Structure formats: C-alpha cells, structure tokens
Backbone:
C-alpha cells in the first residue's frame, strides 16, 4: 500500500492528513503553527509530524509517494514561498522538508491545491479540466487542465477575483483597482450590496432587523422569499455568472465548481449563477455545469495530497 | 534529417510548407482548395501534395515527423473538423489523411496553430507560456502553456473576442451578445469607432476626407498626429489592454503577442496597449511584455508545422 501526506499550512494551525494512494483519507490531525523566529521552524515542525506518523504506522519511505503542502501565499517553482501572514518572502520550504524527510515534496498556493483536490477527488473527478471558484472573504480560483494547475508565469493564474467587471465602479478594491469581481461576488461583497440596497430603498425587509448583516443572512432571507434579499442575491449571481463566462472564454473548463462559505447557499446560488452564465457565455460552452464543490472541511489536506496523485 | 509538413487549409487555398526538424522553412507552395463535393476530396488533395513532395525530395516516411494542419474552424480530438466556410460538420480529416500517407497527423483550429507557431518559432520562443491575440476581422486568440494549447473542453479556449467588456453596449455583436471585445478591438471595430467619433464631434480630422475608412487609415492618421484618430486608437488600446488584463488574470502568460492586420501598427499599438494593460492587471503580472507577433506571411504553415515540434 502507498501513502501520501497532505498538509494544509495556515497562520494558526498546520493540518495534516494521511491518505492512501487512491486519495482516501486514513487519518487526520492538527497542530498549532510554530510562528516563532519568523516561522523558521515550520519546515522541521512539519517534517517531525510526518516522520513520527511514519514511525508509528511503520510506513517505509519507499511506500510513501510524498508530501503535498498548500500554503497561504505564492509557492515558487524553486520551492520557496511568499506568505504575507507568516511574514515569508522567498522562504525555503520544500528544500528543507525534502532534506529532513527524504520524501518528494510538492507545494502550491492553497487555492490551487484545493482545485487539485476538487479535480481529482471531488466534483471534478473524471473530467479533463475544471475551475474551482472559491467565494469567501475574497474570490479565489484554481484552474486545472489535463491534470495540471494553471499557475501562471507570475503565479497569477486563476486570480479572477481581481478581473474588472464594472468599469464605472467608484469604490476601491483591496488590490487598488475598482470594479473587481471580488467587490461583489465575495461574502463581504454580498453584505455590502445588501447594506447599500437597504439604504437606497424603502422596501420592507427582514434584513433591516439584522444586527450583524452577513452573506449568510442575505442568502437565508432570499431563500425565505425576502424581496430585497432576492434582488441582492440576483445581482450577486449575475455578476458571478458574467465573471464565469469570462473565465470560460479564456480556458473553457469542462466543469465549474463553486466553493467557499457562500457556496453553502447551494442550488439557490448555482442555479441562478448558471442562468446568468448562459446569458453571457459563448454558444460552445453554454452548457458547462456549474456545481457546488464536494470537498468541504477536509478540502485543504485533500487538495494538498491530490497534488501527489497521478491522473486517473 | 527530419522533416515536417505544415498545412494551412483555407476556403480558397491550401498552403503547404516543408520544414526541417528545427522548424526551418525549406520550401512552400500552394494550391486552390478543391471545394467540389462538399470538400470531400480535400484529404486526398493534401495527401497527394505531401506524397508527391516526399517522392521528389526522396524523403522516406521514417524521416518525416508528420503533418500539421491548421483548419478554419473547430478541430475535435477524434480528428473530425467543423468548418462553416467549407460546409464541414464533424468532417473526418485526420483519419483519411493518416490512412493515405501513413504519417502522424495533428489538426487544430488555425488560431491555435498560429499560437503554437509563435510560441515555438516566433515571439514566444524560449518562454514557458504565451498568448497570441490576433486583431483582424475579429479578435482571435490562442494560449499555449507548457507546450500545449489550451483548447478548452468545448474548443472555446482562447475565445476572448467574445468576452463582454462593456455591459452597457447597445450594439449587437455577430455572436448575439453585446459589448464583446471584438466589437472594439478588431479592424472593423476600429473603423466603426472612428465613424462614430466623426459623427459625434465637429473636430477637424484627416479621416473626414477618407472614402473607405478602415483601421489602417485610422492608425496612419493617428501616427501623423490627427487628434480624432488619436482618440479612437487610444480607446482601442484601452479596451484591448483591459481585455488582456482579464486574460492575464485567468492564465497569466509569460508574454502576450499581438498579431493580425491591426498589429502592423507596431509600437503605436503595443506601447499604448501595454500602458493600459498595466492600469488593469494585477501587480504580479503587470510587467508581462506585450509585443507584436514575429511570424507574418508564413504564420499559418509555420504554426501548423510547429504542432509537430517538440518543446525545446
């Protein structure tokens, strides 16, 4: 039996999973991220966790396909990592981990890792290409074509959160631009559009009594038939559908999966987004399925492990 | 010595080129496309031309790496081709050609073939990824990543001519949409914007005396300092730069090459487009070079042959 370790490196916790060679999760655990000395101990922290597990389980190095790591930042081809929330700039991660374990190490941005997981083990299983679009605090995206992630020459592949959707927008995005997809089709974007709609309309709405108005409240109200919430979620889906049509016009994936917190809205989100997607997409790719992602809580470690799986 | 045949199949002419194994053009010729019987003789027409050249040059089948063909339509993975101007729908092209010659056959859409040529033999030589954006009657695009063209699950990869740039546009595009990139950043789009500018402005302009106002006239006038033409070409470059930033936000190529008739405007086009590209692109990929394509007249046959070349 062959084994793979999947590691989801975050600013707070290092999540680890042991997988078999078919990508089945056998065991998972986590440990607090050692942020001392600029995160300089993280490679040996991960190495120690992996080596200890191998010892406990009597896994020989020859039976281990390697370690996949998703990082909260840019993973460069030379094995170094930029990660703002760890204070890393070109920090050597893969090299020391390889030296300490003797195992193959694959590191990638966490959005790309999640896309690989979804492609090999989730909604994209059996397809030849997939885009995973993550709707959370921001809009992330990983695109897999023929078993490889489109990382981009400057690691900007799949950064659709910052493509400009509304040239006339006056609000500035965190990236410095204006009218970015992320300003609308994220959780904060959804809440902001709701607040604006409440301020500019006199219509009654359950959202008016909401102390902490967030995206979940908006989607819940829309599902309960609240008119104003329905308008906001419709606008959300329209701009997202248009953004996905742009994406399809460039890479034309076989399937598009929606993940992240907002994707919990389920078919209320995917059906309406698919409706607008079809309005804007080229005839050829008008029927591309838009579905919710399948991997939920373990998406991080599954995606990291999936980088070591062969195409099947 | 190894040989490759590159074939550029058009509605009027079949252009053929004999290349060496490094992609150098040794000989080229063309013949009128045999459109009789729904183009049913085209495979044997191409086979005969190739076999005759092999005989004349005493090229053994073992010394020939194969035949690459660029087609004016969709080339499906099973070797069939859809080509509106030949009346082809799922027409078997690659199979009969393989049967008749015994040679490896690779067929692809002509825009993708051109991109492969530019990537391996032109402006993209030595890079790991490239987008070739063709500005002509329409806006075409081929994207090469790691030596492979992003053809797309429904062959819509790189169809950026129809991504929606201006949601507020009222004019309808040939695709049925409105506000498509092609409505502005093509040769007819450029001429239309000039006509509109002339109609809505009283400013003097050399373009007013132009009987057949086309894109070339607009660019020539802009280069000569004509104010109205400068405004039009500036608008052209702004919308193109924004479109290229969208493309870069999805695939982030190492270099972007501009081809097609409008690209003859040269640096007046690329410099201004790069300026606007940088306004809209993510920081990571703000410095992506935007250059004119290098392969000109022989781009079709070079691109077709390039599909048979290995990555170097």
Residues:
């Amino acid at each position: 039996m062959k084994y793979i370790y999947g590691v989801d490196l975050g600013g707070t916790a290092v999540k680890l999973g042991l997988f078999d060679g078919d990508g089945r999760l056998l065991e998972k655990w986590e440990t607090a991220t050692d942020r001392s000395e600029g995160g300089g101990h993280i490679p040996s922290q991960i190495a120690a966790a992996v080596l200890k597990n191998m010892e406990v389980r009597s896994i020989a190095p020859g039976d281990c396909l390697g370690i996949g790591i998703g990082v909260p930042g840019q993973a460069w081809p030379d094995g170094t990592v930029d990660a703002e929330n760890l204070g890393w700039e070109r920090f050597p991660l893969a090299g020391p981990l390889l030296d300490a374990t003797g195992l193959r190490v694959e590191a990638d941005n966490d959005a790309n890792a999640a896309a690989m997981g979804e492609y090999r083990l989730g909604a994209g299983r059996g397809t030849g290409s997939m885009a995973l679009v993550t709707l959370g605090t921001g809009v992330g995206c990983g695109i897999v074509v023929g078993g490889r992630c489109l990382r981009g020459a400057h690691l900007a592949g799949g950064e659709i959160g910052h493509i400009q959707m509304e040239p006339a927008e006056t609000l500035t995005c965190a990236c410095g631009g204006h009218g970015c997809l992320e300003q609308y089709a994220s959780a904060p974007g959804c809440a902001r559009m709701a607040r604006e709609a409440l301020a500019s309309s006199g219509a009654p709405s359950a959202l008016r009594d909401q102390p902490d108005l967030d995206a979940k409240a908006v989607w819940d109200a829309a599902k309960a038939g609240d008119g104003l919430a329905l308008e906001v979620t419709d606008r959300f889906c329209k701009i997202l559908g248009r953004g996905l049509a742009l994406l399809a016009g460039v890479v034309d994936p076989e399937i598009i999966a929606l993940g992240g917190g907002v994707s919990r809205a389920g078919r209320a989100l995917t059906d309406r987004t698919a409706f607008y997607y079809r309005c804007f997409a080229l005839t050829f790719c008008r029927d591309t399925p838009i579905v919710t992602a399948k991997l939920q809580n373990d998406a991080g470690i599954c995606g990291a492990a999936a980088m070591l799986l062969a195409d099947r």
In short: Chain B has a mean pLDDT of 94. The longest strand of chain B covers residues 13-20. Chain B touches chain A through 42 residues (CB under 8 Å).
